[in-house]
Request: fold
Amino acid sequence: MSALTTRSNAIISHTGVNFSGKEGYLLKENSGALAINDSATAAARAVVLNGEVAANDSTVGILGSISGTVKLKLSGSVTKYNLVQQVNDGTVTVDAGTGNRVLVGTALETGVSGDLIEVATFSPRLAS
Reply:
């Protein structure tokens, strides 16, 4: 590994925000911190992997720099191999195929609203 390479996976700790119970939710940048993503059209930055109360470290993964797959929270029905797009509450749903949206990965499982499913994430892609 290069002396300039600091980690093989962009999984980091984040303190100061209550992400308890928010595993699989997408996050946005908010004035140098992270918050639950509240936009369907502004690209998310990360996903909660292990949510904790604000006083403890939560574990988050940076989208596009996560080695392997992660679980994402659904707000609609998704079929295995569907592309998924972000929703304005930190969840994902099946790609609508039209309109302004942000794609964040490929579903590797079928699921319905409320499920956590395995997704091969990638760097968020703006689509229209």
The mean pLDDT is 95. Residues 70-127 form one domain. The chain is about 0% helix and 40% strand. Strands lie at 11-14, 26-30, 33-36, 46-50, 58-62, 70-73, 83-86, 92-94, 101-107, 116-127.
